[in-house]
Write the structure tokens for this entry.
Amino acid sequence: MTDAGPLLTPVLGSLYALQVPIPYPMKTVTVLLDVPAHGPVSMVDTALDTPEAQAAIEDGLSALGLHWSDIEQVIITHHHPDHYGLAGVVEERSGAAVHMLDVEIGRGERYWHLWEEWLPGHLKHMRDHGLPQESLASMGADNRRGRDRVHPASRVQPLREGQYVSLTGRDWEVLWLPGHADGHLGLWNEQGSVLIAGDAILPRISPNVGLYAYTRPDPLGDYLQTLGKLEALNPARAVVGHHGPVMEGVQARARELRGHHHERLDFIAAQARQQPRSAYDLSLAMFNRELNISGRRFALAETLAHAEHLRLLGQLYRTWDEGRGVWIYHA
Ligand SMILES: [Zn+2]
Ligand SMILES: [Zn+2]
């Protein structure tokens, strides 16, 4: 495969990164295609279920001389709609088994199957942390739009941290990189010093680390540990979900992101010391700009992840305000 066309960026051996359009500010998500001489034809991440994304993937497949039915293995880094959305479509068209980390199957992936049942809890969690009543309905509608672009897989096979999968005819180690998603998976090839990182680290934006009703209790604590892991791993190159497809300088970027989160922790602690308030009110101080409803949701979840991390460290405590029906954080 010498000329795979303009859509595809060669990564390592038979592995190519395809930039697939998504209607989000990041513009594209990275889908990996692997056509090794020995080993399964594989896809890593699937993009969002939109006609544009499906067409882009078809173009990428055909540039490599492939059809949907040739795919033998699908691995998904995490459950977010832009990475998992087409999982069920790829599964139906190829018959390939879909794989995710065991932790992600039990939480994020389950979220898509139990979406209707979990939505009330999801909204209650936001309301209990101060989201105004008038924003709840539009947040529910925004969530539904996201759900409509996800076609869940019927069966997902679990991968475990430390096990190996075959890509490029070589072994890649399965890593657990929680924080941005509870069961975020990475794939590490030591020989090539290449990490398939998904959204665990990104070059231009700080991956959202949010506390939702269905997440592990301390996603920021998880993420700070993931940054430590990435710093120690020090890959020469990482294939990233957005603003890539390939980045260098992972170690320096991990340090920079840790500094960024430490600054935010200090900011939240200082704000709560100045005046005790809800996570939503803290989020208005931390993200002090115009945001649409999904931006506000990310801002609240991210602020809450920081506030709860401080609470679990014993640096903040919270009380229930019965009159307003919200949790209040105090220093
Ligand atoms: Zn993501
Ligand atoms: Zn993403």
